[in-house]
Every structure is written in structure tokens, then in C-alpha cells.
Write a structure and sequence with these properties.
flat; GTPase activity; binds guanosine-5'-diphosphate; 8 strands; 434 Repressor (Amino-terminal Domain); 53% helix; alpha/beta; Rossmann fold; SRP54_GTPase_dom; Four Helix Bundle (Hemerythrin (Met), subunit A); 460 residues
Length: 460
Amino acid sequence: MFTSLSDRLTGTFKNLRGKGRLSESDVNKTVRDIRMALIDADVSLPVVKQFTSAVRERATGAEVSQALNPAQQVIKIVNEELVEILGGNTRTITYAKRPPTVIMLAGLQGSGKTTFAGKLGARLKEEGHTPLLVAADLQRPNAVTQLEVVGQRAGVSVFAPERGNTGGHDAVSGTGEGTRSFGDPVGVSRAGIQEALSRQHDVVIVDTAGRLAVDADLMQQASDIRAAIEPDEVLFVIDAMIGQAAVETAQAFQEGVDFTGVVLSKLDGDARGGAALSVAGTTGRPIMFASTGEQVKDIEVFHPDRMASRILDMGDVLTLIEQAERAFERGQAEEMQRKFLAEEDFTFDDFLQQMAAIKRMGSLKSMLKMMPGMGQMSAELDAFDERQFDRIEAMVQSMTRFERTHPKQINGSRRARIARGSGVEVSEVNQLLERFGQAQKVMKQMARGGGVPGMPGMPG
Ligand code: GDP
């Protein structure tokens, strides 16, 4: 995400590097470059204007002319203004004082609402909540089934009306009981909240219908649902790929339903980022979540400061660490550390566990992109073949239990068998074993306080 905008901006700053003073024409040129970069990234014009005039004003002021390193200072200003445009402080869900907290999702069809409902449900469950998804999208024949599938995948209960039954009864993940009258989305939403109350779900996520384009009926329906259920949060889900159209759509929803926060979806695609920079700026509503893929785990809390940092290729190490913490199962990291300190051998079983955790964190590429300076290596990163991981995993899985814990005993015939079992060349198995041996050695050395070879040892 934001790759080309990021490339352009970092390119602009390169021209400033090494300059002891910035002349007026340096500033003008920089502001012009930033302006072009933003326009090319599909940022809406009013936002571009607001942004560049803020940067220009500050860049010609005392904070830059008196700075020791003017280029750094300009980057700092651009960073701060980006954070501002993206909404300033991180905003997360505000919970109702008395449960259930009601969260309503609105947006165009295909924007990613249903997928997001599942992701948010899973995330909240992980945080100890007991969410219920409510299928109030009765427009699209498949929407209810889709939400049920999403709910199942996310491990979250779904409340849905029975299909084709306008006066029907509820069918809650197979636990349906009683008969209530609803066939309309408002009725379903209300019934969903009742259900949450009686089954003690503390959060209700209501998925509403979308249309391919903004239309009056859609707005009326969403607005009726809103009036009926009085949600604590109304999240407007928008596809980051729709570029310039984002602002218009967001404004229509703001007028028609109004929302408390924005969810940017499909940020994993090659969206040019304009939507992100424009929507918060024009509606004054914060972006609260980013949706970054089709899997349940592909959801991030949107932190304006971290996002700005990513755009400027300053990395986002905090998000990386949080993802790692989430990916390792409870106690797994401690167990790894205990083994490490006890100088027990690092085995292929440990290795498999680590690979699984890394996989849970998402793609290696997306993780590497969060490292500072990595944005400029995007071509190399794109060339990286994630399947390499699968090959390694296949080799380890072809090892016997004994082999995994005694890698040194893997002789020639065992190597040939492993290669056959995993469909690779023997040379690849050799390479894996050699690297693994080296890794084991390095770990031992580090555990003994020797530090990383070639680096000064750590005191204590
Ligand atoms: P809805 O009509 O608003 O409920 O949209 P859906 O949740 O059905 O999503 C529409 C399509 O976009 C589906 O094919 C999803 O798999 C896909 N999708 C949703 N969110 C994301 C995302 O963050 N990244 C990507 N790449 N695809 C997504």
C-alpha cells in the first residue's frame, strides 16, 4: 500500500539531503513535488491544497531556517502534516456503558463490509468480548449465507433471518428458537440486539445492505436502521481502490447516514492511497481500521502516526511487534526463551513452530515492508518467492521425529528420502541442514553470552 506515493515522497526528500540551507526555490520545488505526488496518488484536490499550504507555510518559517538539518526538518513537517490529515490520534471503538455495544457497518456493495464484520468479530473475541454478527443485508440473496460463512471462519456467532421467509423465525447458528416477525432489515437488526441481550453478547456488529452506487433507497434503509438501533458506532467501510470516487461516496454516506469512523478496506491492493488521505480530511471522521486482505486475520487498527511513518518509509516497527505478539501462541515465546537460556538444542520442531507463527503474522513481504527503508526495496521484495517457505516446511515435514530432534544424524540416505518425500533436490536438503546447523551454533553462542559472532559481546 502507498508504495508509489512513498517512492515519490522519499525521492523528493533525497534532493534536499546535504543542503545546509534551504532557499526559497528549494522549498517551492519541494512543495511542488509533494503536490504532484499527492495528486498522482489520487488525493482529492482540496486536501492537496490544505496539505501543501500547511507544509509551505511551515517550511518557510523559522522552524526550518534555524534548524541544523533543514531537510530532516522538512521531513518532520511533512510527517506531522500527514498524521494530521490522516486524523491525528488513533481512535478505537467506544464501548457502551451498558452492553451490548452496537456497531453498524455501512458502505457500498463490494466494499468489504461482510468480510470486515468477520475480521472485527474475530479481533474483538480475541480481546475477550463475546460479539454477535447480525445479517441485516437482505438485499443481496447471498449476503446472509456469506455472513454465516464468515462468522464460522471467524468463530463468531451469527444472527440471521431464515431465507425466503418474510415472517420467519430466527436461525442463530443452529440454535434458533422462538418465532419473531421480521423480514425487513430494521426488524432483523432490532431482533439481533434482543438476541444479544438475551444471550449476553457484549458487542453486536450489524452488517447492512450496500448498492453498487449510492442511491436514495439505500441511504433511507441505512438511516432507518440507524434510527431504530441507535448504534454506538457507525463504521463506513470504503474500498481504498476506488480512488477519487472515495470522497464523493464518503460525503454521500455522511449526509445520508452519518458515521462515526471509517474502515479502509483492500489496503493490501495497489491502491494509490488517495482514499486514505482524502476521506478523513474531507469528512472529519477518523479512520479506525484498515482491512488488508481476504483472511480473518487481515485487520489492523489504523494509527495515523504509524501510517504516515510507513508512507515516508520510516517503517512501522510497532505494528510488526504487535503482530508478532499476536501470532505466537500463549507461552510459546516463553518456552522458546527458556530453551534458549538452558542451551537446549534448537530443533526442527521449534523451527516448524516459528514458521507457523510467522505465517500467522501474514506474508513475509508485508512484514518486511514495515521495516524502515524497505519501501525502497520494493522491487526486490516483490521478486521474493513466498513459496520458498512452503518448500522448507515440506522438507521438515518429511523428516521423522528422530530426525527433527537429531539433525546431525541425518545421513546421506536419510537426506535422499527427505528430498523424495518433499519433492525437492537433495542439494536443497543439504543446504537447509547446513544453514540450520549454523543457526544452532549462533544461538548457543548467544545463549552463552558470547553475543552475535562478529559483534562485541553484551556485558552482564
Ligand atoms: P460487501 O458487499 O461490502 O459485504 O463486501 P464483501 O465483504 O463481500 O467483499 C467484496 C469482495 O472483496 C470479496 O471478494 C472479498 O473477499 C474482497 N475483500 C474484502 N476485503 C478485502 C481486503 O481487505 N483485501 C482484499 N484483497 N480483498 C478484500
